[in-house]
Every structure is written in structure tokens, then in C-alpha cells.
Amino acid sequence: AQKITQTQPGMFVQEKEAVTLDCTYDTSDQSYGLFWYKQPSSGEMIFLIYQGSYDEQNATEGRYSLNFQKARKSANLVISASQLGDSAMYFCAMSPGRGDTGRRALTFGSGTRLQVQP
Amino acid sequence: DTGVSQDPRHKITKRGQNVTFRCDPISEHNRLYWYRQTLGQGPEFLTYFQNEAQLEKSRLLSDRFSAERPKGSFSTLEIQRTEQGDSAMYLCASSVTRGPNSPLHFGNGTRLTVT
User: What pLDDT was estimated at residue A99?
Assistant: First the structure.
């Protein structure tokens, strides 16, 4: 079974600063995919970034980067230059297999609420 | 690409009533998922379709829940004899059969309140 743990229920960050959202995972699978989603107050889940367990380089997408430490089983999200619009819930999720989210369902963590302060 | 559409956005019903939700996925997406999200929690997987075939169901999907995707396009999720514990946000997502960069695209959800 897969498990995702997000230990930070809430985080505050000043606008234009960087913030790290923590995610640890547990799985017996040899290959798996790791995802981060953003959920604003509107409710829609927005895909941010993906990391495959065999990818040697950390994933980056614009202001988002994923700090992947396989031995520690962590996949922290780093948001650089925070903006007011970044205020939302952030969910870490994983899937078995090499990122094929279609075969089996994503397992989500409980989320971290990020508030960006002006 | 008009995104994943869910209807209704909100539903209030009395305990014991049946409710049905609809999801229209992104048109070229052959995979469709239903998730349930309660307050303060991450989404929990309910069921998954590839085209019209329902390939996976969570044990969370009790006998009172049924999902269909009759023509491999839109999907419906029905809850019979609703209970207060069914109150949650029901999220639909879709994706294509492609490589690792095929994330799930979620709709805005249907919020169900059972009184």
C-alpha cells in the first residue's frame, strides 16, 4: 500500500519569498510517480509538477521545483518568488508505475494550506 | 479544451434520497476517475473507467454507490439512500493514455450536503 504524509497543515510565507512544502511517502513499489496539485478555494485541483522515481534530475516547472530525495522518501515542493495567487491548498500524491496515472489511482496526502502575505 | 465539467456544483438532499452527479471529461480523454474529498482531507479514490469499462473500484464504493460511463464519454455517479456521512465534495478527473506526463485533469467538483 502507498501512503503520503504531509506534516504541515498550514504555512505562511511573505510575498516574493520562497517556501518549501514537505511531503514524505511510503511504498514498496520499485517505480512510482510523484505529483503536486494545487487546490484554490474554487475547488479545482490543478496539476503543478511531476517526478518519476527513476528520474535522476529534480523536476522543475516555472516557479515550482520538486526536491526529490529518494533515499529519504521525500518529495518536497519548492515555490520560488511567492505570489498572492499562490494561496491555496497543496496536495502531494503518488501513483504506482512509472507515472502512468491511468492504471492505478493516485494516493493523496492530507494537504498543506499555504497563505501568502503581502 | 474546455476542461472537465461537473454538474451540479452543489446538491443538498435529505437523508434517504437518491442523488446523481454528472461528469463530462475533456473530449479526447479516454480515462475517467471519481474521487471523494471531505473537509481537510485529500481526495480519496472511488472508481476509474477506461473508455466505457469500469476497471477499478475502491472499497469505499459501497453498494449504494454506482458509476457508469455508457458510451465512453460522460459519466454519472449515483448514490442511493444517502446518509449524512456521504456529505463531501465529489471530484471527477480525466486523462489520456500516454506517458509519464499525463496528469489527471480535475473538474470543480460537486459538493453534496445530506441533511
Answer: 45
- Say how many CA atoms lie within 13 Å of A54 toward its Cβ: 9
Nearest C-alpha in A relative to B98:
A100
The C-alpha atoms of residue A112 and residue B70 are separated, in whole angstroms, by 37
The rounded distance, in Å, linking the Cα atoms of A84 and B74 is 35
Taking an 8 Å cut-off on Cβ atoms, the answer to whether A100 and B99 are in contact is yes
Cβ separation of B42 and A111 shorter than 8 Å?
A: yes
Average pLDDT over residues B55-83: 92
Helix H or strand E segment including B82: none
Q: How many beta-carbon pairs below 8 A join chains A and B?
A: 69
Q: What is the DSSP string of A12-60?
A: EEETTS-EEE--EEE---SSEEEEEEEE-TT---EEEEEEETT-SSPPE
* B2–A contact, CB cutoff 8 A: no
Q: Does B112 touch chain A (CB under 8 A)?
A: no
- Which residues lie closer than 8 Å to B6 by C-beta, 6 or more apart? B21, B22, B23, B24, B90, B91, B92, B107, B108, B109, B110
**What pLDDT is recorded for position B61?**
84
Alpha-carbon gap, residue A52 to A24, rounded angstroms: 15
| Three-state secondary-structure class, residue A11 | strand
For residue A65, the cross-strand partners are A60, A78
Say which of A33, A45, A105 has its CB closest to residue B56.
Answer: A105
